Amino acid sequence: MLDWMNWTQPVAIFFVVIACILVAMSVWELASPCSERRGFLPIATTRGDRLFIGLLCAAYIHLAFLGLSEISLWVALAVSVAWLLILLRWG
Amino acid sequence: MRKVPDNRAWWLVLPVLLLVAFSALVPLMTVVNYSVQDIFGPGNAYYVGTEWFRDVLRDERLQASLLRQFGFSAAVLAIEIPLGIGIALMMPKGGIRASLCLILLAIPLLIPWNVVGTIWQIFARGDIGLFGWGLNQLGFNYNYTGDPVDAWLTVLLMDVWHWTPLVALLCYSGLRAIPEAFYQAAEIDRASRWAVFRYIQLPRLKNVLVIAVLLRFMDSFMIYTEPFVLTGGGPGSSTTFLSQTLTTMAVGQFDLGRAAAFSLVYFLIVLLVSWLFFTAITHMDKER
């Protein structure tokens, strides 16, 4: 199946993970709907907003690691996940 | 009690989502997929991981192009927004003169982008163009095909000519929405012209200005056609902006993997800026 349009495994995993996050967030939202609140971010956000901010930050963190250092991207991934969790909990 | 919005209306968005999936999401996923491969032809692609991203982020030519792009967008905003406000303030408030002004202002907006490029290419020529010839007759050594500064100024001037009317029209509509009572109150208080602008007109223009800044930033950040027609990115690479660098890479050199990585970086910048503007607009509405 991956031969179609030259799909590669890492990219497939990447999108499956994103899709899973979106599905999980939707289920979570249905199970216990969230309302806007104000955390350490300067604006009031919903859970979905914080996820978006976290994912956008993750992209920039990875780019920064790639462009500015030789450190393994697994470190960038760990930093991104930690930051995403912090954002979701306290953001 | 905390209020929870009813989200069932989102199901109505489903058809659009499907459409967007095929017109935007799948192509975007394809770009992500291409960005991790070195592609020589159909069935001849090699997985290279994040090699292209590293390459693109450290490419001095691209960094220069990015800086140029930000410089251009900043210059466009710094000139067009104040100028647009100024023009809107000077326009007549109503009657046939207002209609005439609106039509005159709208003309540049109706011209196709490649025609705008062609108009200015001829207009700015030193031998047959009125603008270039005039400048040279006045003693300026003006040559937009040879001098980077002249080329820059010409592209900037062209963009100002093309898009300031949009800002002016937006501001004009914002100004017309201010009730006459505000001005009467200001007159009773003997407010100066500046005070009227600072405390009545400018705050009321805030919303249209945010939209104008967003539109002008996005458009100038993605500018391609006009400089391509006018200067072709030259002299040297002095007016080669991001989208032109990208097109050269993707279509000219057929360097798909590298171009894909570059477009993703480009996309992320646009995404971040749009999100910041979007948040600013929605946040302003909530505060009120």
UniProtKB/TrEMBL annotation, chain A:
Pfam family, one: DUF2160
TM helices/strands, residue ranges: 12-31, 51-68, 74-90
Keyword Transmembrane: yes
Keywords: Membrane, Transmembrane, Transmembrane helix
Annotated InterPro entries: DUF2160_TM
Protein known as: Predicted small integral membrane protein
Species: Marinobacter segnicrescens
TrEMBL record, chain B:
Membrane-spanning parts: 12-36, 70-90, 102-123, 151-172, 208-225, 259-281
Subcellular location: Cell membrane
Stored InterPro entries: MetI-like, MetI-like_sf, Sugar_ABC_transporter
PROSITE patterns: ABC_TM1 (PS50928)
GO biological process: transmembrane transport
PANTHER family linked to this entry: GLUCOSE IMPORT SYSTEM PERMEASE PROTEIN GLCT, TREHALOSE TRANSPORT SYSTEM PERMEASE PROTEIN SUGA
Family label: Belongs to the binding-protein-dependent transport system permease family.
UniProt protein name: Carbohydrate ABC transporter membrane protein 1, CUT1 family
Species this protein is from: Marinobacter segnicrescens
Lineage summary: Bacteria, Pseudomonadati, Pseudomonadota, Gammaproteobacteria, Pseudomonadales
